[in-house]
Specification:
The protein is α/β, with parallel strands linked by helices. Helix content is 48%, strand content 16%. The chain contains 16 helices and 12 strands. Strands 9-8-7-6-10-11-12 form a 7-stranded mixed beta sheet, with helices on both faces. A 5-stranded mixed beta sheet has the order 1-2-4-3-5. Strand 6, helix 7 and strand 7 form a beta-alpha-beta unit. Helix 6 packs parallel to helix 15. The radius of gyration is 21 Å and the shape is globular. The protein starts with a helix and ends with a helix. The structure holds nicotinamide-adenine-dinucleotide.
């Protein structure tokens, strides 16, 4: 069965074979520095006892402390975290952020637990990792299934051990009262939107207004990506979440936005807008003719069959690793452009970095400052990407390989100066 790690490593290995990096470097970059498996003993509020599996993977820290999301997902596993941790290392150095790559998971469905039980789980996780996480060691952030409240519980508990305001930067994606950053909530979706905007401005030489898109996932990444595209005048034709797939052809996203903003499951929203928000099949969803397809739900959603059936111009990876490895070449052959995850969904980690800086210098920046710094950072990376994309030496590279090359060349330089 294909896994995130195997899908990613297939693409990565194909790319690495083309390049002339040293064998030691390649081995180091394909493996993780540390994989921590935890079995958290948890006594729940009702007195019952559970042993909960958790994982933290630290891939590489040549470029700075490990940084990466912490997901709450029952089926999360070590190999998934390893693949995602490598992606984080590449993402951070690609965006010129002084962090390495990490990833973690607590293997539960957070919906199965009360808030008080979640607090215990978050605190126990923090305690078990107390020596290996921290603002200069490893900095978790929210990911699939986790949110800023969970980060608050963790940072408060971390503080109990260290009693030092400098440790607020041990977690990012916190609420404002716990020294979070303005703009972090929407940063990933805003980054997805910015990448699309730059693509239209710099490559297609037109604006987004009137373009059409479909999007899978209405969580943090999906809802904000949709919101910013819709505000700019793009039209959302279909949406999806874990409850199903829905056509938006007869309605405007603005009508359902208040419900989506509260993260209401789409089957409930559909009940309210029966006439206009119509259920469709998964195949009908992916086959919807449109300009942009955004998988923003979870990994490995675009199989070869799904990719074959797409009728669009651009695929934008809002989620991490949403495509099977064969899909890159297939899209290129079909003339469909791909904006890969390490660029498309990097807005979140960029603003996490801003949160970490604010914690270090004890400042709180306003939204304008955050947004314009994010725009600048993404635009610079996009320009570097564009320069290579239009250079004759890189015509045989996929867009993902171009981004790999930018990131890996920098990492190789760090390696050569360190070893
Ligand atoms: P989330 O938990 O907030 O939302 C996930 C959404 O996807 C929900 O609407 C859920 O119903 C839907 N979904 C889940 N499984 C599905 C399936 N099989 N079919 C259809 N819909 C499904 O998660 P998120 O934070 O939005 O993250 C989504 C993806 O983006 C993940 O791959 C995550 O790693 C990646 N990502 C998130 C961030 C961030 O800042 N949150 C940053 C970078 C990358």
């Amino acid at each position: 069965m294909k896994t995130i790690e195997s899908a990613f490593q297939e693409l990565f290995t194909t790319f690495l074979k083309k390049e002339e990096y040293s064998a030691t470097f390649v081995d180091m970059i394909q493996h993780c520095n540390r994989v921590i498996q935890l079995e958290l003993p948890i006594t729940l509020q009702d007195g019952s006892y559970q042993r909960i599996r958790a994982i933290r993977v630290q891939h590489n820290n040549w470029n700075g402390p490990y940084k990466g999301g912490l997901r709450f997902a029952k089926d999360a596993n070590e190999e998934e975290c390893r693949g995602l941790a490598i992606i984080m290392t590449l993402k951070c150095i690609l965006l010129n952020i002084p962090f390495g790559g990490g990833k973690g998971a607590i293997c539960i469905n957070p919906m199965d637990y009360s808030d008080a039980d979640m607090k215990t789980i978050c605190e126990t996780f923090t305690e078990y990792l107390i020596d290996v996480i921290g603002p200069t060691k490893d900095i978790p952030a929210p990911d699939k299934g986790s949110n800023s409240r969970h980060m608050d519980y963790m940072v408060c508990h971390y503080y109990k051990f260290h009693q030092n305001p400098m440790c607020w930067g041990a977690f990012t994606g916190k609420t404002m009262l716990h020294h979070g950053s303005k703009g972090r909530d929407y940063a990933t979706g805003y980054g997805v939107f910015l990448c699309i905007r730059y693509w239209f401005e710099y490559i297609l030489k037109k604006n987004i207004q009137g373009t059409t898109f479909i999007i899978q996932g209405m969580g943090n990444v999906g809802k904000w990506s949709t919101y910013f595209l819709w505000k700019e005048g793009a039209r959302c034709l279909a949406i999806a979440d874990h409850t199903g797939y829905y056509s938006m052809k007869s309605m405007d996203f603005g009508q359902i936005y208040p419900h989506v903003a509260e993260l209401q499951p789409l089957d409930g929203v559909q009940e309210k807008f029966k006439e206009n928000l119509q259920r469709i099949t998964k195949d009908e969803f992916w086959q919807t003719p449109c300009d942009i397809v955004i998988p923003a739900a979870t990994h490995l959603q675009l199989s070869v069959e799904v990719a074959e059936s797409l009728s669009c111009k651009i695929v934008v990876e809002g989620a991490n690793c949403p495509c099977f490895s064969e899909v890159d070449a297939l899209l290129k052959a079909k003339g469909i452009e791909l904006i890969p995850d390490i660029l498309a969904n990097s807005g979140g980690v960029v603003v996490s970095y801003f949160e970490w800086i604010q914690n270090q210098i004890m400042e709180q920046w306003d939204e304008n400052k955050i947004d314009s710094k994010l725009e600048k950072q993404l635009q610079e990376t996009f320009s570097t990407f564009l320069e290579m994309k239009t250079h004759p030496s890189f015509t045989n590279y996929t867009n993902r390989e171009i981004l790999f090359k930018i990131a890996l060349d920098k990492l190789f330089y760090l390696y050569k100066t360190k070893y």
